[in-house]
Amino acid sequence: MAIRQTVRLSESTPRLTNAETVESMGNVGEFCPGRKVQFAKIVTHHVQCGKVVLKKEFFVAALQPEAGFLNVQGAPLYYEVAGQGYPLLLIHAGVADSSMWDEQFQVFAERYKVIRYDLRGFGKSEFPAGFFASHEDPVALLKFLNVKRAHVIGISFGGKIALDFTLVHPEMVGSLVLVAPSVGGHKPPADVLRFGEQEETLLERGDLEGATELNLRMWVDGPKRLSEQVNPTVRRRVHDMQYHAFTVPIPDGAEELALQPPAITRLDEVGVPTLIMVGDYDIPDKFTLAQKLAEEIVGAQLMVIAGVAHMVNMEKPEEFNRVVLDFLMGIPTS
User: Exposure pattern of 198-228 as b/e (b: 16+ CB <10 Å)?
Assistant: First the structure.
């Protein structure tokens, strides 16, 4: 891999005629157990009056993202890890896969050891042919990666898993960010039930495209916008992730175990710093849930992001990243 970048010299350098050129050529080697590193030879040329007056050579190393599969609860779970520092776990929405965090993964990895994975039946992860508990997958993954405690961010269905995980394993959670979360035990309103019935009808007909578009209108567009008013790139990415999820086979005997008692009755048990986020174009039920969480989780903060529906981190990644990083930076990790 060849990398080129430009680094400007100090303005005090006399009669500089062009920028300093940095050229990197690297090889992949081993650095720390199980981690790969890019070793780069950096050659810098200081140019003055059209001639090279100073040449420097040095080597740098940059950790590369780690990816793999963990066989747990009877089926492989795909994961990726990047960065160093205090661990940060990302749990994606139920209309996506772990690539929905692309605008966060490397940004957060500048400060944290970031871990993301595909939920069962999404991306590259498979359903097991038996019972499984979604909130136990993060436990197995963090233990496998020798992580004792992590900040946890979950969106939508991933928020439900993050909340359940926090309730069952509070010692493993440093803080919690819930973005337009679903909550176990919450009774959905009529419009959400109707959406579920329509989705099931389309899937029974084998109309995967129709079912995908239904999800886009519900979760990407939201009730206050037309599809033409939504970023087409975000819409296309969610389309591809959701359509793929509809094609993943579900083995006979696969059954998810729900947390009991459900989270909706145990919100006062959450004892970690918590941030609740929701977009102002999301469905009304998400506002209701966000407000309930903010009221019943001790010390929880509520942040409403303007101009977005359900996929907050994809529609406004810069604002999302800023809000989350500001929140995390205020939490002691020692």
Answer: ebeebeeeeebeebbbbbbbbbbbbeeeeee
